Amino acid sequence: MKPQANLRTGKAQTATLYEPFICKVLSVRDLTPAEKVFRLMRDGGLPFRHRPGQFMQVSVFGIGEAPISVSSSPTRGDYLELAVRKAGTLTSAMHQLRPGDTIGLRGPFGTAFDVEAMRGRDLLLISGGCGLAPMRALIQYVEDRAGDFGEVTILYGAKSPDDVLYKEDLAAWRQSGGLRCQVTVDNIRTGTCWDGHLGLITALIPPLEIDPTKTMAVIVGPPVMYEFVIKNLRQKGLSDQNIVVSLERHMKCGVGKCGHCTMGHLYCCLDGPVFRLDQLPNLQEMI
Ligand SMILES: Cc1cc2nc3c(=O)[nH]c(=O)nc-3n(C[C@H](O)[C@H](O)[C@H](O)COP(=O)(O)OP(=O)(O)OC[C@H]3O[C@@H](n4cnc5c(N)ncnc54)[C@H](O)[C@@H]3O)c2cc1C
Ligand code: FES
């Protein structure tokens, strides 16, 4: 991995691979009862230099470290947003953070969505649950470079209306003339107001009019989603070269040293988390 250059000295800055740099929490916002979004600014206002699809290793000092996907596009400015589900020790500590607090970050790490390969293509962006977090970074990028891409369709699925992330963004994308956006939930509690679809995300794919020769699909979501979404996309005529997935593994170092994230001969932290489907000969085993 190439060391990042220190913008002030111009010298290679290998320390950032292993040593967290300090970031200030600018704001904290509730997405759902279980998920919060943190907007961060790097000490000294330095840019993060991330690309949509990459992740950061986030540390709360004295607690630990965890990989979290970046959920904002670099085209939006020199800040970075992370959507974090309260899952255990580190993420619970993150949920205690307030504006003005500091945390450590290493990264950005991992492969990104190949926006160059997507240029001029129609995009089908399919996410489920927390998968909307990294997908949002790509959607923002595509919004900001609208002329570079063909038709953009966003499909998002969550368990229930309460679990839907980024409701305001989804509403804006649904109203946007430049994007097609559909949201579905698996279940609706009696008495809940819901104006989206009801049912699994796979049900949204067959009615779509897709030109398989000019469409690239991106999938980010819980493991159970991949098999069925991919089956539907192949039935639409998409080849594996035009299907991109982002995978998750338990990680420690994030830089290909510890072996925690191996998937056969691949490291999820270095070779992924973003893969083209034709790079994953045994996807079922890797999921
Ligand atoms: C590339 C990548 C991107 C990620 N992006 C996000 C994100 O944008 N937002 C977010 O909220 N979470 C994300 N995660 C998951 C996040 O890293 C874990 O939830 C976090 O490490 C849990 O740490 P903890 O100390 O709070 O939990 P722990 O106390 O370590 O564990 C709590 C529970 O979470 C499970 N867990 C821990 N790590 C993972 C993992 N990688 N995958 C699935 N389950 C796990 C444990 O098995 C345990 O059941 C991402 C993971 C990866 C690998
Ligand atoms: S997390 Fe250590 S090798 Fe990938």
What does this structure look like?
The protein is α/β, with parallel strands linked by helices and 287 residues long. Helices cover 19% and strands 31% of the residues. It has 7 helices and 17 strands. The protein has helices spanning 15-18, 89-95, 115-118, 132-144, 167-175, 223-235, 283-286; strands at residues 4-5, 12-13, 21-30, 35-42, 55-60, 64-69, 79-85, 102-109, 122-128, 152-158, 179-185, 197-198, 215-220, 243-246, 262-263, 266-267, 274-276. A 7-stranded mixed sheet has the order 12-11-10-9-13-14-17, sandwiched between helices. Strands 6-5-8-3-4-7 form a 6-stranded antiparallel sheet. It is globular, with a radius of gyration of 19 Å. The two termini are 25 Å apart. 39% of the residues are buried. Mean pLDDT is 92; it is low at 1-13. FE2/S2 (inorganic) cluster (FES) binds at residues 251-254, 256-261, 267, 269.
Q: What portion of the residues fall into strands of 2 or more residues?
A: 25-35%
Rg over C-alpha atoms, rounded to the nearest angstrom: 19 Å
Give the overall form.
Answer: globular
First-residue to last-residue Cα separation: 25 Å
List the secondary-structure elements in sequence, H or E.
Answer: EEHEEEEEHEHEHEHEEEHEEEEH
Strand order in the sheet with the most strands: 12-11-10-9-13-14-17
Mean pLDDT: 92
How many strand elements? 17
Q: Which secondary-structure class do the elements indicate?
A: alpha/beta
List low-confidence stretches.
1-13
Largest beta-sheet characterization = 7 strands, mixed
